[in-house]
Amino acid sequence: MTHTRELTFENPGFYKRLKGMLGVDFYRLFHTPMYYIFLAIAAIIPAMVLSMGGQPNAQGEVVKLYENTWNIIAADTPLYVIKNIGEYANMNMVFIFGGIMVSIFIGHDYKSGYVKQLFTTHSLKSDYMMSKSIVGAFSMMCMCLTYLAGGVFAGVLTGADMSVNAGSLLIAILGKMIMSLGWASLYTMLNVIFRRYFGVSITSSFVIGTGIPVIGAAAVLGNNSALNIFLYGSSVNACLSSNIGTLVTCIAVSCVWAVVYNIVGSVILSRCDVY
Amino acid sequence: MNAIEIRNLQKNFGSKQAVRGLNMTVPEGAIYGFIGENGSGKSTTEKMICGLIIPSGGSIRLYGKDYTNAEVRSKIGLLIEQPGCFQNLSVWNNMMIQAANLGIESAEAEVAKVLKLVRMEGAASNKFKNCSLGMKQRIGIAMALLGEPKLLVLDEPINGLDADGMRIMREVLTDITKNYKCTVLISSHILTELEKIATHYGIIKGGEMIKEMTAAELDASCRTFIALKAADMNKTKLLLSSRYSRVEETEEGYIRIYDLTEPDEVTEFLYNNGVTVSEIETSKIGLEEYYIDLMNERRA
Question: Which of A180, A259, B23, B134 could form a disulfide with B165 if both were Cys (CB 3.0 to 4.6 A apart)?
């Protein structure tokens, strides 16, 4: 049965590998109802929060959460220390929804056995990390847009104040959208670490997405700009008083963490049993 | 060149040694039947070959290259347990997803071709979750065939199938070996089916390879026998035992005389002793019995 012919093998390049994987991941994203559900949630939540009358204070008086529509997008200043829910509930919530979505998306790769088809072929672990991070970031960016649409729509309906520094608002929105890449990479890494435990991966994504670790650090350090080195810190920093420096910080922090998380995730995947 | 060359392969899961010092050689173009009990390390070995599990030690070379080499990996097709498909997508879309991952240029034509080969062209629009087990296994094989693989790794592709499903699968596997000329590593518990297609065998026990041989070697080492039925089986057995060295009664109610090929001689002997033979045939023990004997020897 031994053949003597010479076998040749093609060396699939990086572009070809990533193109194929991204194509599949985007196809899956657009064909899963979950994606549209999360887009809808991202639109409904700000509308609900903005439409709420307010929150009762210690004296029982109802205090409005927001005087200004754009506070649903970001706080006026970088507030790592939170005094009320209004200072917390803004576009950063998208990163919580995004974390859950990425967890479900990657969890499905393992549950369906898709990863075994994938990793038997020429696909590299780093390609996988990159593809999931890019698709996760894209989905969170889309959620940011539906969140913006939901917030503006509710703001118009409720007649809330719409005055804002347009440049800072734009930078805040762009900054948060750019932070999506770092967040998506973090969630991808967490889901790779906890790939056998779906419950743990989704919980870890949720807890870290809420920013609790950074909020906890802020309770000790106060509103310290050093917290901007973290994803949550930079996400909070993208606020209604942002300037171009804020945007640069967001780009730098998001990209650096994305690279770190992608490298760590790739190393973990390469050294562990996949399936 | 050997398609698979494994030396001293080891895999530990905690303190449990799943594969211990396994050596395996699969020549290019072979249909290699990989046989072993449940938990003997077959699937673990196959998963290591496919790069899904990291070996604890030893080496795996595929077509002379390390098993992690991306070039060689692009030419491996696998079906381990069930195919990795998305339940809510159609068969066609699942196939297209794998074609995209493999970077196949003419994906639609290739998918149509492999679906036809596995007799699934009529079910391409079905949702994967609505397919029967047999259909799912065939989809898995079709998926493994995308990209014209040089090596196919199939883990228990016929287990759980009904008689018709098994027949179709056998036809499919025969077609594959004819049309694709690739090396096939196939594990199965259904040895009678495996025997019909395999050219080489590897028998694994407790994570170690205990025997590797070609189909010709198996054939040569399998003993011939004469099986017969008579009215008085006890008397027949006594008579035959007095003349032949190895006489056994089977569970199916036959008496077997091993290493004998001339039924006329036996019939005449029994007739002369007042026994009339109702059925008699010459046969050879198959892979299943060979395997059982080998396992019993190892236990002893």
Answer: B134
Q: Rounded distance, CA B193 to CA B208, Å?
A: 24
Residue A186 lies in a domain: yes
B67 → chain A, closest CA residue: A120
**May I ask the CATH architecture of the domain B2-212?**
3-Layer(aba) Sandwich (3.40)
End-to-end C-alpha distance for chain B, whole angstroms: 37
pLDDT at position A2, please?
42
In a domain, A144, yes or no: yes
Rounded alpha-carbon distances, angstroms, from residue B230 to B205, B240, B253, B269, B279 = 39, 12, 10, 13, 7
CATH of region B223-284 = 3.30.70
Q: Which of B29, B70, B93 sits opposite A12 (nearest CB)?
A: B70
Q: Which residue has the tokens 């790779």?
A: A192
Q: Do B86 and A112 touch (CB under 8 A)?
A: yes
**Looking at chain A from residue 249 to 268, which residues have their Cβ under 8 Å from any Cβ of chain B?**
none
Query: A16 CB near a chain B CB, below 8 Å?
Result: yes
Residue with tokens 């696998």: B78
Tokens 């189909």 locate to B215
Spell out which residues of chain B touch residue A117, defining contact as CB-CB under 8 Å: 78, 83-84, 98, 101, 143
Helix (H) or strand (E) holding A208: helix A198-209
Q: Which pair of tokens denotes residue A202? A: 């989704």
Cα–Cα distance list, B195 to B31, B116, B170, B178, B187 (Å) = 10, 25, 11, 17, 11
A6 CB-near residues (< 8 Å, 6+ apart)? none
- Partners of B1 on chain A (C-beta within 8 Å) are 2, 7
Quote the tokens at residue A166. Answer: 């347009």
pLDDT tens digits for B241-256?
Answer: 999 888 888 888 899 9
Rg (CA), chain B: 23
Residue B177: both structure tokens together: 């070996």
Residue of B nearest to A10 (CA): B71
Query: How close is the nearest chain A Cα to the Cα of B115, in Å?
Result: 17
The ipTM (two decimal places) reads: 0.81
Q: What is the pLDDT of residues B29-88, one digit of tens each?
A: 899 999 998 889 999 999 999 999 999 999 999 999 999 888 888 889 999 888 889 999
How far does the CA of residue B277 sit from the closest CA of chain A (Å)? Answer: 43
Do A274 and B102 lie within an 8 Å CB cutoff?
Answer: no
Which domain covers residue A167, as residue numbers?
14-51+67-271
- Could you say which residues from 92 to 111 on chain A have a Cβ atom under 8 Å away from some Cβ of chain B? 108
**Cα distance between residue A125 and residue A112, in whole Å:** 18
Contacts of B299 (CB under 8 A, 6+ apart): none
Instruction: Answer yes or no: is A4 within a domain.
Output: no
Task: Give the pair of three-digit tokens for residue A1.
Answer: 């049965």
How remote is the C-alpha of A160 from its chain's centroid?
28
Inter-chain touch A9–B52, beta carbons under 8 Å: no
The residue extents of the domains of chain B are 2-212, 223-284
Which residues of chain B are within 8 Å of residue A16 when distances are taken between CB atoms? 103
Say if the Cβ atoms of B28 and A1 lie within 8 Å.
yes
